[in-house]
Design brief:
The protein has 12 helices and 9 strands. The protein has about 300 residues and is an alpha/beta fold. The chain has 2 domains: about 200 residues, Rossmann fold (3-Layer(aba) Sandwich); about 70 residues, Helicase, Ruva Protein, domain 3 (Orthogonal Bundle), CATH 1.10.8. The termini are far apart.
């Protein structure tokens, strides 16, 4: 079955009385060349577990199943289940799980599979691209590579560097966790039905060792969120949104990190954000240390 042929997609829709859901981002791939590029980028072999997010009618799933040891496909739309049984019937190494990927515990699925080599793949539903990526990274998903298609605009943002107009919180966070490479640029014309925007496939390879071991990751994320939350403001103002720091401490932190308070978040490199987070940590540590000594003293005095 040529599942990438628009005629075949249309036949399957008719056969199963299936209606495409716009709200679930159901735009199916119709270009074998792009499908091959995605599958090649996973470098999956018989020792690999591939977790696919959103198989649709299974156009990538079948290709992946021919290369990987096992494919676990996570699909939210139960109306696609009979279709997937039909299109993937010949494979005994494919399991379809009918669940919202945002609610799935992928690390548990990986652990239960017994596989050590793991790749995550997906032509993502665009309405939840960012939460999916952030969810994978925050849960420190135990995958060797994540090969995903997304809206070109989001891919450009993720790949961008400081100083770029599109550089944002997601750029810093993804680049903190992963090495990022673009696998393919994809025209909107190779989907059924075509979406409004072009796409791109990125490979995110989680870094085995971080270039900078942060003292407190949560603080690093708060600083990034605050900085980009009000990206037109200077850092001395936007960082006011990081809870628990006075204006004076913010200025001291910036100075200690060698960052001009008049700069804006979009000009800071990953290294500068990391240094700033560590300086903020030291300031808080020194202050809370003092507080706790004073509290001990207070406690002592009242007895
Ligand atoms: N992989 C197929 C392809 O390339 O043609 C389909 C990709 S389509 C862009 C996105 C798929 O993700 C659809 O099958 C859709 O039903 C599914 N999906 C949407 N939201 C989802 C969610 N929260 N969890 C799991 N799958 C989801």
């Amino acid at each position: 079955m040529k599942l990438y042929s628009p005629k075949e997609i249309s036949n399957i829709k008719d056969k199963f009385g299936f209606k495409l859901s716009k709200s679930l981002g159901q735009n199916f791939l119709t270009d074998k060349n792009i499908i091959d590029k995605i599958v090649d980028a996973t470098a999956a072999d018989e020792n690999t577990l591939v977790i696919e997010i959103g198989p649709g009618i299974g156009v990538l799933t079948g290709e992946l199943a021919q290369r990987a040891g096992k494919v676990i496909a996570i699909e939210i739309d139960r109306n696609l289940l009979p279709i997937l049984s039909y299109t993937l019937g010949e494979f005994d190494n494919v399991e379809v799980i009918n669940i919202d990927v945002l609610k799935a515990d992928l690390n548990r699925i990986i652990e239960d599979s017994g596989y050590e080599k793991v790749k995550i793949v997906g032509n993502l539903p665009y309405y939840i691209t960012t939460p999916i990526i952030m969810g994978l990274l925050e849960s420190k998903v135990k995958a060797d590579d994540i090969v995903i298609m997304m809206q070109k605009e989001v891919a450009d943002r993720i790949r961008s560097e400081e100083g770029s107009r599109v550089y944002g919180a997601i750029s810093v966070v993804v680049q903190y966790y992963c090495n990022v490479t673009q696998v393919a640029a994809v025209s909107k014309d190779v989907f059924y039905p075509p979406p409004k925007v072009d796409s791109a496939v990125l490979r995110l390879s989680p870094k085995k060792a971080k270039t900078h071991e942060l003292k407190d990751e949560a603080l690093f994320f708060s600083i990034i969120k605050a900085g980009f939350g009000q990206r037109r403001k200077t850092l001395s103002n936007s960082l006011g949104a990081v809870s628990g720091f006075t204006k004076d401490e913010i200025l001291r932190g910036l100075e200690a990190a060698g960052i001009e308070p008049k700069r804006r978040a979009e000009t800071l490199s990953l290294e500068e954000f990391s240094k700033l987070a560590d300086e903020f940590f030291d300031i808080r540590d020194a202050r809370d240390g003092k507080d706790s000594i004073r509290k001990e003293g207070d406690w002592g005095a009242s007895n």
